[in-house]
Amino acid sequence: MKPKKIFILLPDGVGLRNFAFTSFVEIGEQMGWEVVFWNQTPFDLTELGYKEIKLKGKPRAFTDLLKRAKISAELDHFEEKFDDPVYQTYKFPAGNKNIKSKIKNAVVTQLTKTYRGEKGLEKLRSKLKDSERKSPFYKQCREVLKREKPDFIFCTNQRPVNAIAPLTAGQDLGIPTSTFIFSWDNLPKATMVIEPDFYFVWSEYMKEELLNYYPFVKKDQIFITGSPQFEPHFNLKLRETREQFFEENNLDPTKEYICFSGDDSTTSPDDPQYLNDLAKAVKKLNKSKDYNLGIIFRRCPVDFSNRYDRTLETYKDLIVPVAPRWKKLGDQWNTILPTKEDLQLQVNTIIHSKAVINLGSSMVFDFAILEKPCLFLHYDVENKQDENWGVEKIYNFVHFRSMPTGKEVIWLRSKEEIESKLEAALKEAPAEVQRAKTWFNKINQTPAEKASERIWEGIDKITEKST
């Protein structure tokens, strides 16, 4: 019997971590699927032994303007629908450097005004597809699909505009299409650029979000699976001994380490100051309480800036940078791609750290899985890099409302609190860890290590119905 063929659409590098570097492909092959990556990233998946077809081409410029208008109009609609101004905070200021960008911005503004509300958004979704049907990119995608005849198309990420043409071509040829909602905070941000036939979500909580934000989606189009991004934490083959990890990363075997997990410069422009405050607190603990602590600094993978250099130099006796193992294959942020090696690095960074400190990152879940506490920074520094930025803006985002009690992390509400609260976290397994695990089980289906299997079971159900 000929195996069914699936196209795993990789419109950007976001899906590599979840679907190329985990056991996702192997599970599908064991279930009788022929797995082919439809790959628009610079990453060569044949090096991992996978089948791939390179996806070449780009969306029309007008399609991108429609996408921008759709996001803006959706956020306006969400604000009105839920009577909540928070949705305006998800908007980024548009560049206005030259005449061309000013014209584009004017077009987006007019489109946003024209297509308001549910009916307007429905028209925008149709216009996005119709626009791409006029492109050479769509025609090429259609030709590939007619030649290869896949039974199913699975898009790894709902955000990229370049995913519209391949999915629309699939739908026009009667091939079932789907997408995975790749992050826990995506739906409130109006990042649903594509409109596939089926949706794979992390949890019942995310399913309800999807239905609330996009009422045209029906319940039977949604599959609750969890996210494969957490599966490596359960893979014992990835784990290294303390000696191995410390030797590979130039860590002092006499020290215990705290992990400082950095954000990008937009999310947390004051990260260098936070790292500096942590280093001061750790230095005091070492001196006054006879601790021997160090700091592992894991920067945001797409942050190659020099903004931390002064702090790293000042506290080089305390802070050891352990940089994410991502590859920079181009000048744009979306050409900085994860690697399989970084999965192992991240897992062992967690295992061999006592706790993590950051600003509102989902690393709280990664550490909770491995029974480690998370301390969330919740104060503004004295000399802010951006006066329009503040921690309240971050923690007011909708996805933090999923916290069951608000006590799932240890809150650092001033730099003066770091020393005492860090010491308390180190002395015993805090109750916050168990509460964080409860939070994690709310936003991600359990058992977390079975997400890939559940996705494949969903794909099987869909394709059985369509044959």
From TrEMBL:
InterPro entries, alphabetized: Glycerophosphate_synth, TagF_C
Alphabetized SUPFAM superfamilies for the sequence: UDP-Glycosyltransferase/glycogen phosphorylase (SSF53756)
Signal peptide: none
Pfam families: Glyphos_transf (PF04464)
Entry GO MF terms: CDP-glycerol glycerophosphotransferase activity
Domain of life of the organism encoding this protein: Bacteria
Cellular component terms per the entry's GO annotation: membrane
Protein name per Swiss-Prot or TrEMBL: UDP-glycosyltransferase
